[in-house]
Amino acid sequence: MSEPPTTPENVHHHPQPVDGFQSWLWQAWPLTSWILAAYVAFHRLLFASGWETLMFLLLSPLIVPAIGLIESLPRFILRRRKHVTLPTPMAWILPTHWVFIVIATLSFEGSTDAAPTPSGLSVFSGQPIMETVEMAFAGVSLLVALATGTALLVLSIVSRPRGSKPMNPLRVSLAAGVPALLLVCAPMVAAGATSTIPDSEGTTLREIRTMPIGEQLVLVEKRYEEMQHEFSTIRGFADTGDWVDVDMVIDSADWSGSVERYQLELFATSADAIAIDKDAFTQDLKSLGYERSTYGTRWENPNGQAIELNEYETGAQLEFHSPQWWGDGDELRDRLDASTGALKSDRYAADAYPVFGAVAPAELANEWSERSWDRYLPYNYLDLEEEQADAAGEFREPVRERGSEDAGAATRPDDARAVFDGVVSLLGGSLSPDAVLDIDRRRWENSYAGGSGGGADQYFIVLQHTIAPPEEHTDWEAVADTLAADGWSDVISSRDGLAARHPTGDIVVAYDGPDGMVVALRTPPWWGSA
After folding, report:
1. Structural domain span for residue 515
2. Is residue 2 part of a domain?
3. Which of 459, 456, 413 is nearest to 437 (CA)?
4. Which residues of 344-358 are buried (b: 16+ CB within 10 A; e: fewer)?
5. pTM of the predicted model, to two decimals?
6. Based on the structure, what is the number of domains in the chain?
């Protein structure tokens, strides 16, 4: 029996694999799908982890199979339809789909109880990235990943299993190179976009980063003065009497610390219990451009400033919040703390306020930190560097070799007590030689040498006592003038107290406390062991 003639109708065409880019993608697709699934579930382990890491880990038995199967579905359909290689249109789409899944996961910050952790974009760029930029990248990336994934699914259904020609080198370079370039450039593009965003005054982050920190602090002082001038008017609207706890805080507006921005917050509390007519207060604030918000005790203006009112039985507190500006709030606070400032009073008239950088005498006396002392009396009063001479001109090793035979150490408590008693006498008080002083009596304070890693081999002395207040209010400016005439340096005063440095290096702070006049002294550090 003769063979039937061969015609186009009875010839079965079996597509053959195509060498090159399409074949490589076809072979790599199954493994890449599961790698992507595992990456989505565990990618936060590559960065600073947060609560979302725990959530992904707990849900990973669901996330990995779900994503792996979804990503493999188009290829499964292609195989069921007798495809043995990747159709050319899908070869253009698949690398882009994979890359945008990765970019989307890199765009999210981590979450912790303390603060968010940087996103992958921020980590790889080495720069802070604004969360609005990260959310834009995440949104666009998710949309592109979803669109390309849908396109892959549709093409897998409609593409016929016919042979494909290998893509030429130029097309392969475009299909593979463009997605790879997007992945590499995404972090830097996000950081660049952040650097061009203006703050409330139109200054960009890039401009602030080129501005020396000293100039930034001058800018903070200018903003402080402008805000306090307006805040004085607002306090007058609320009450024309005196105000206490008049203070300022440089608040890092981004609490994750990844983006360098801050705002100023001013506070003031009425000295007496008052009842504020909120309707009348609202009308007064309208003259300054403020409108009452839905939160009944908050008023805002178009410039981003806000007033908040908190009422208590003992008095009313006003808060004045600035808009956000670019700048490192933590570094600005440190620079402000390290600069010479002034003492502030315990109360101010409605139209008065502390000078920029002022601190309460009680804070200076009770917080024996390096920051406070360096700020108001420029002298290192906490730690000696390993190769630094102490207040007596001695170095660490010679003092350590002498040990307990150090004759100078024996007289230092009495020397400090003599300076302390002299100040008490000048203020009209007196102490008996055996008077018990505050802060665990007269004591030695120890700290560790910077970088020494050894024992406590430097110390200083702290004395503090409260004496009966004089019958008349102390004229602190007059006392300050007397100390300056006697050779004391770095003398600063307010209506409530003073601080000064004795020629020996001892720092003295005195102020009107609630139970009497508080006098505190702290010596500079010496090498040795208490």
Report:
1. 367-527
2. no
3. 413
4. bbbbbebeebbebbb
5. 0.71
6. 3
